[in-house]
Amino acid sequence: ARRRRPLNPSPPSPGVAAAAAGPLALVSFSQVIDSAWAMALDRAVKAGRLLAHVLLARASAPSAARPVTLVGYGMGARVVFHCLLELVRAGAASGVVEHAVLLGAPVTVRPERWAMARAAVAGRFVNGYSRADWVLAVVFRASTGFVRPAGGLCPVPVAGVENVNLGALVKGHLDYGDALPEIVELIGLGG
What angle do CA 175, 179, 183 make, to 5 degrees? Predict the structure, then answer.
């Protein structure tokens, strides 16, 4: 009778191990980014809802405060967007927000949701976007399965939403903060 040798695979050669290390590190890194991005998206929604309730409490105070102007870029724009949606859901959106400006917003372009958010704004509702924002393009589209673009990358086709192409001022996502004074002047809210 013939004896079978136990299967004892030899360890991979150093070249094979080195070749696999790069892609494995990228996969691991992308999972960390995806996890952090998903957490940031979720927290922005929650922060927006909380902001809406703070504004509603402020508006119902005995010395009712004046309407506010909300401006946000990046995740801050997502907070503002979800604040507006929550104000509409609460049924008390009228007179709370005078103007809203979203810059580089990581928010899916779904006209019905933008129209709903628009209903919470008494004055101007501005979507500032830049097609050159490759960080937003890559991260947002990867997280949504490449299905829909973000409002921060393109115009939003909804009546009452002013779309402002900021491509001349914003060449990347981090440019919004540095260009904010010029953006406010361009939009005409710095009065």
Answer: 125
